[in-house]
Design a protein that fits this description.
The structure is a single chain. 22% of the residues are buried. The strands form 3 sheets. Strands 3-2-1-6-5-4 form a 6-stranded antiparallel beta sheet, sandwiched between helices. It is α+β, with helices and mostly antiparallel strands. Helix 12 (466-480) packs parallel to helix 13 (498-519) and helix 13 packs antiparallel against helix 14 (558-568). A hairpin with a 7-residue loop joins strand 2 (119-124) and strand 3 (132-134). It is built from 14 helices and 15 strands.
């Protein structure tokens, strides 16, 4: 559908410009806010990851320090000796204090001491059970033996990554080494089972207000890409859930950073990752939050932007509609006024309701309408004058012809009639004489008819051409009007169009009549020049002259008739005249009506 109305176009352009500007600003604002929000979330995840990393590293450093301290105390040696004596279930105060100390820390679940070959003493450190010595079952002794077999004399301690205990059906983690009694030179292998719950207490976040929202989590992954801490979404995840993500790969390539990745659940998340610095453990730590939750607030911003875009677009539409009406209403009035002028109604005037360009246009239009009215009145007056002049000229010509016919032909015919009536009763000689006189009068009448006919349309113009007709007319005027009238021409004129030939003859005839009737000149000169595409006429006289700008009312119709004929030929006329000096007329006629030979 084509929009033709200027008002509709203005509204459309304003709305397009407004909506485009709003869309650009909104898009820029949306993506700027989105990037800022993502960056803030990454910073928050990095902060959580750094805190968790420090806590995990500090946890293991504390456990190492605690293990080193315990392994060098006399109490651990006494516990090892007591474990090999009868009544092993009886414990002294020193042993009970150490066990209570370890149990109160909640960082260890069990303590194992190798008393002799294949004899292992176990101590429960969990407060919900009986703290103290317990007898290991065969399979558990075998499992612990694998831990002790890794202990080297040169190692002060070893942290064992998670091992899956098929007896208890869960992964277990240990720190092991030798207890040293420098006084008795007794070395016993000891192992402390590190509490998984203690590690999970550091890594697992359940409170949405702790920085990870409802979908965020932090967890640890081992070199086999299985989890080393419990997942927020999968309770049984340690050594069960494998994490094969870009974040884990980058962390194991010693890259610390943030990325938008798909996590182990296949969900798009924001992830912050790095390696952990824990002796003997090649672990990485990650802090992640679901992408949709991270940018949830940006959707609120997006919805607000869309609402504001629609609201502002509507406001722009209303404002542009109002302004378009204010702009186009005067233009529509001008259009209607122009249509009225086109239909002929020139009595149109518009009120000026503004002082801007449209107001100036209204003023110019009113001036144009007023000028057209004046021109129309002038044209009507000129048309009336021409019609009047034409009718008056026709009447004058009729009167002239009537006088000439009455005074010339009429008198001659009456004379012939009277002479013929006198022949009755005369003798033959008198009759013959009368007949001769009648013949002579008839010849004069014929000449008079020929003269009148030449005035109307000279036959010599058709028979001999324009130059001969003008030359004869000038010679006749020069002889009869007592004026020295000279005629000269240059070029060929026998190929001119018949209409142009007649018009040139009549223009020259009018000019000569003006010289004879009004100028009262004694000397006149006429030049006719043929150029390639132009005919020039120069007419000079030494008559009384006249004021060209203020013509006298009795000057007649000669000059108007000349102007009209020249206008019809698309020509130009220039008249120079002063009172008492004479008149000079220059005429240019373009040759656009030549015959096609």
């Amino acid at each position: 559908m084509r929009i033709r109305s200027l008002s509709d176009k203005i509204v459309l352009y304003f709305v397009i410009i407004g909506v485009t500007a709003i869309a650009i600003v909104s898009t820029y604002s949306f993506y700027t806010s989105k990037n800022a929000l993502l960056q803030r979330t990454f910073d928050q995840l990095t902060s959580v990851r750094v805190v968790k990393k420090n806590q995990v590293e500090q946890f293991f450093n504390d456990r190492i320090s605690e293990f080193k301290l315990i392994s060098t105390t006399a109490e651990i040696s006494r516990i090892a000796i007591a474990s090999n004596e009868p009544n092993t279930q009886q414990t002294g105060p020193f042993k009970q204090n150490l066990l209570n100390h370890l149990a109160n820390g909640k960082y260890f679940n069990r303590m194992f001491i190798e008393v002799e070959q294949d004899i292992i003493a176990g101590y429960n450190l969990e407060k919900q059970g009986n703290i103290g010595f317990y007898i290991l079952e065969k399979k558990e002794r075998q499992f612990i033996s694998t831990i002790f077999n890794r202990v080297s004399v040169n190692d002060s301690f070893i942290i064992h990554d998670y091992l899956f205990d098929s007896i208890k059906h869960k992964p277990r983690m240990f720190i092991s080494g030798y207890s040293i009694d420098n006084e008795k030179s007794i070395k016993k292998k000891i192992a402390l089972e590190i509490s998984i719950d203690a590690i999970n207490a550091i890594m697992l976040e359940q409170n949405p207000n702790d920085g990870l929202g409802t979908s965020g989590e932090s967890y640890i992954v081992g070199p086999d890409k299985f989890m080393r801490s419990v997942s927020r979404f999968q309770p049984v995840s340690i050594m069960h859930t494998q994490v094969l993500t870009d974040g884990v790969e980058k962390a194991y390539n010693d890259i610390t950073g943030t990325s938008v990745i798909d996590d182990y659940r296949g969900i798009k998340v924001l992830s912050s990752y790095s390696k952990l610095d824990v002796p003997a453990l090649d672990w990485v730590i990650l802090a992640e939050i679901d992408y949709n939750e991270a940018i949830k607030s940006i959707y609120f911003i997006r919805n607000n932007i869309l609402f504001l875009t629609i609201l502002v677009s509507f406001i722009v539409f209303v404002i542009s509609f109002i302004f378009s009406k204010r702009i186009t209403s005067p233009l529509m009035n001008l259009s209607e006024a122009a249509a009225n002028i086109k239909s002929g109604n020139l009595n149109v005037r518009l009120p000026r309701i503004a002082h801007d360009e449209i107001g100036q246009l209204t003023t110019s239009f009113n001036s144009m309408a007023e000028s057209l009215r004046d021109k129309e009145n002038e044209l009507k007056s000129e048309r009336n004058k021409r019609i009047t002049a034409m009718i008056d000229g026709q009447e004058m010509e009729r009167q002239r012809l009537s006088r000439e016919l009455h005074d010339g032909l009429g008198q001659s015919l009456i004379a012939l009639k009277l002479k013929l009536e006198t022949i009755h009763g005369k003798d033959v000689c008198a009759i013959n004489k009368t007949i001769k006189e009648v013949k002579t009068n008839v010849d004069g009448t014929i000449n008079e008819i020929r003269r009148i006919s030449n005035d109307l349309m000279p036959a010599v113009l058709d028979e001999f051409g324009l130059m001969t007709a003008l030359k004869n007319m000038c010679e006749e005027i020069s002889e009869n009007a007592n004026i020295d009238l000279r005629f000269a021409y240059e070029g060929k004129f026998n190929d001119l169009d018949k209409k142009l030939t007649i018009y040139l003859f009549r223009i020259m005839q009018e000019a000569i009549n003006n010289i004879v009737k009004h100028a009262k000149a004694s000397d006149a000169e006429i030049h006719l020049i043929r150029q390639q595409h132009l005919v020039l006429m120069k007419i000079f006289d030494n008559g009384k002259g006249w004021n060209v700008d203020r013509p006298h009312k009795n000057t007649g119709n000669g000059i108007p008739n000349m102007r009209e004929r020249i206008r019809l030929l698309d020509g130009k006329i220039e008249i120079l005249s002063e009172s008492g000096i004479g008149t000079q007329i220059s005429i240019e006629i373009p040759l656009n009506t030549l015959k096609n030979d």
